[in-house]
Amino acid sequence: MKRFQRLLITGAAGNLGRQLRQGLAPLAEIVRLTDHVEMAPAGVGEEVIECQLGDFDAVMAVVEGCDGIVHFGAASNERPWAEILDSSIKGGYNVYEAARRHNIKRIVYASSIHAVGYVRREDGADTDTAHRPDTLYGLSKCFVEDLAQLYFHKFGIESACLRINSCFEKPIDRRQLSTWISFRDLVQLTERCLVSERIGVTVVYGISDNREAFFSNHKIRHLGYKPLDSSENYRAEVESETQPGDPFDPAVEYVGGIFTRYGHPDEGEK
User: Which pLDDT score, from 0 to 100, does residue 1 have?
Assistant: First the structure.
């Protein structure tokens, strides 16, 4: 018997959404895929519905009939405030409120390390580290993490907030030797957040089993997440092709990397 009758994945057209579309299929009888842009046609056991997350009525319709949500939609980078407000903040609220009204009890949310981007590398962070967003993008992640707390304590909706680091086929620079998570580790982590018996509100850093890390997941053993990959396999290649950074450059000093250099996006200072 599959864990879900109908699992909703928002942001399904994105790089990570496409990985989850395939990787999470065994968990559900039907995977409903949504994004605001065109997606690949529905395959067997799939439904494809375009949806603007800032439109509450549209979100209500796409959530109806689902019994779990993997919320990877919204702005994927620093964007002007109006875009962040509509897709990420309003969109996050719309997803949680639609889940409440449709009696959905578990959401996996794609947060980001940019919720704590102004933590210094040498200080490190764990899952209890206070928010220190480095951008409006990071601020929107803080908002939805707090929204998850509200909707758990007041309405009983469990959430996992995945502070995703650098999810690519392989690490491409020295920072990513610490922040990288492989595609298959992301799928495994998301799956564990969906099927673990109780998660409450769990914050977890999306990282593989890297030798160096800015973050600690020592408090999330209840998920049973055991990463299979490590950036160490790419260290020689990365170090031969890149130079060490300036330790006093904000992009090196802080875990948020280059995001800490960005100005206000509405002033064209990115």
Answer: 79
Closest by alpha carbon to 87, among 53, 50, 49, 38? 53
Report the sign of the C-alpha dihedral through residues 91, 95, 100, 101, in that order: positive
Q: Is 113 helix (H, G, I), strand (E, B) or coil?
A: helix
**For 106, left (φ over 0), alpha (ψ -120 to 50), or beta?**
beta
Average pLDDT, rounded, for the chain: 96
**Phi and psi torsions of 9, nearest 5°:** -120, 115
Tell me, rounded to whole angstroms, the distance of Cα 162 from its chain centroid.
Answer: 5
- Determine the Cα angle at 101 with ends 114 and 57, to 5°: 75
- What is the predicted pLDDT for the residue at 270? 47
Amino acid occupying residue 150:
L
Q: Give helix 91-101 / helix 56-63 axis angle, nearest 10°.
A: 40
33 vs 49: CA distance, rounded Å: 6
Q: What is the pLDDT of residues 28-75, one digit of tens each?
A: 999 999 999 999 999 999 999 999 999 999 999 999 999 999 999 999
Which residue segment(s) compose the domain that 169 sits in?
4-267
Q: Give the pTM.
A: 0.96
- The three-class DSSP label of residue 34 is strand
The answer to whether 214 and 181 have CB atoms below 8 angstroms apart is no
Q: The domain that contains 29 carries what CATH number? A: 3.40.50.720
Cα pseudo-dihedral 254, 259, 264, 265, rounded to 10: -170
**Average pLDDT over every residue of 238-259:** 96
Residue 138 token pair: 């990071």
- The reply to whether 137 belongs to the active site is yes
Q: How many residues does the chain have?
A: 270
Count: domains in the chain? 1
Catalytic option among 93, 96, 137, 225 = 137
